[in-house]
Amino acid sequence: MDSRIDLLNRFYGKSDEDNRLCRNRHGQLEFATTMYYIRKYAPADARILEVGAGTGRYSIALAKEGRPVTAVELVESNLNILKENGTGLSALQAFQGDATDLSRFADDSFDVTLVLGPLYHLYEKADVHKAIDEAIRVTKPGGIVMCAFLSVYAIMYVNYYRGNWKEGMAENFTSDYAVRHFEEQLFTGYDIVEFENLFREKNVEWITTAATDGILEAIEKRDDFIMTDEEFAASLGWHIHCAEKRELLGASSHLLHICRVKRGK
Asked: Distance between CA 138 and CA 114 in Å, rounded?
């Protein structure tokens, strides 16, 4: 059986990750919403760590705003693109590394830690907790940790209403509808409360959970989908206004869990 790292290297080596957040409307919405929350909770002079930075869409955008950013990426092909795209940005540093081991960084090193992709690809509960614990460890007391995750319900809505529902059920749920997490999924999804409960015993205070792309990924696959730039701009304001509504969270493909590290940790 291939390791998690082998699976990720193979997948991201073939995918156009660098354009994922700009080539379609749901990617643009995810990027705009996530940047909104980063700017909301990160002071202009905040020292930021992005774990699982991909090709650097967020890290580079933040560094271009003059924010000091350290990017960590596991997949070598992604890291190479990140470094190339970030050439000349003095505010940006980039390293290869895994979310489950941030030992190159001391405790309390960053004001804001972003984990915007690794938890899509961690399947063992011990590894999930390692990644969360490491993000908290390297963040200063009073600092912010933002972790992206996928809704298992949106995974079903987006991918399994095309005559393959039974396949999706077998991959994402047990026979009694408990959520499954295993390596061959590649992308693993969560029930919202299930994900929030991962932080229950951590030394953090929950701030909010927000939907970053809503139902847009599902409806964008329709043949009759049309959204002009003007309509997208109008929908963005509405989406951000509604992003934290509990009744809408599960329908969003991507979500953002935001918490503050307690002082005196």
From this structure: 11
Tell me the pTM.
0.92
Tens-digit pLDDT profile for residues 243-254:
999 999 999 999
DSSP code at position 142:
E
Tokens of 81: 């693109």
- What distance in Å separates the CA atoms of residue 255 and residue 244, rounded to the nearest whole number? 10
Half-sphere exposure of 39 (CA within 13 A, CB side): 12
């503050």: which residue's tokens? 260
- DSSP 3-state of 90: coil
Other C-beta atoms lying within 10 Å of the C-beta of residue 46: 18
pLDDT digits (tens, 9 = 90+) for 63-89: 999 999 999 999 999 999 999 999 999
- H or E element, residue 221: none
Whether the Cβ atoms of residue 139 and residue 50 lie closer than 8 Å to each other: no
- C-alpha–C-alpha distance, residues 38 and 48, integer Å: 10
